[in-house]
Model the fold of this input.
Amino acid sequence: MTYAVTVDTSIPVGSPEMDALQRAGAVALLEKGISAVEGIEGPDGMEVDIFESIVAVHPGGALLTIFVDAPALEFAEDSVQSVVGELLERSELLAEWTIDRCEVQLHPQLTQESLDAADGPDTPPTDAAARKAHHATRSGDSDGQDDYDAEAEAQAVRSRMLTMSAELRSFPPVMFGVLDPEDEDGEEEDVEAGVLPEDAKLAAGALVYGAHLLVDELFQDVQTLTQTRSNVAECERPLWLLEELPDRYAPEYDAHFARRFLVTAIAMTTRFTHGSFQQLSCLAEELALRLLLREANVSLETFGLMDEGVAAALEAFAENVYEDMDHEWLYDDSVDEIGEDAAGEAFGVTPMAIGSWFTPFNEGRYVHPYAVEAPEDAAQ
Done:
């Protein structure tokens, strides 16, 4: 069975963020170290083979996606964590880095294949909730008990999101509907209408949390389409996010498109967290933000953290960041022609044909050069 294991690593706490040269060096060290490992001997002599890896380095660490063949999900996670941990320890420059997360994100279809492949006393339970508890307690409980505390897990995720909110540097609380004291006129009804700062903070953290999932899952979709040499319309393997894009262009979503969309999502979320965001740059970014909002909402719902206040904060954020909602017409088959030909221009509709998705809205918008290039001109 093939698994995509995601590993989040971070530079030491208190260390300055890496510059471009340091990031290039980290990529080289990680890629060289992983490529030198062909196989891992897991528990009870089980063999785990590494056949592909993706390394994405950011100022605060690195995100690795390592594809392995393993008898079961548990062996895949344990083996990859062991290898990455040893790789960091052996490198003088990376020795103090930490592993924050090492896990396989479960896709429903792949989960069932994993269950079918696993065998023996350590086979995880078939029930989805019980399986989640099984994975949570495997690594966290030293006494061997398998009790899953959903409330504790929810509070841990909430705490993590609140901490992560500080990373969303481009958006002050007012962007989430929190009233600006300088503009507020003091009337009680206006105060009550605003979003609470705590709700805005949790919404901001959920977006950063969702950005990790967004990039991670797009990485996996790129890998799937590359391996199958297909597009979203033809791919028989499950996909994480690209199936959420407008159906009408599904045959156009091949591996190269997926890479361009991934780069666009990274460029957008980088500006969100760097503090340099001003406006969405192209239609592809509008669609990437739609997926990011979906990730944030799903994460909050999954852990029971969504309430009216947080929902209002995310809604206010979307309203403030989107200049218009024309891209939603791409999901409505009854308006095929609007925005895709000259007729749309008469109504002031942004061009929506897929060939324009990565074109900057105007000269002042930034789109990554890799995403801008036309597919027919790109190296395959």
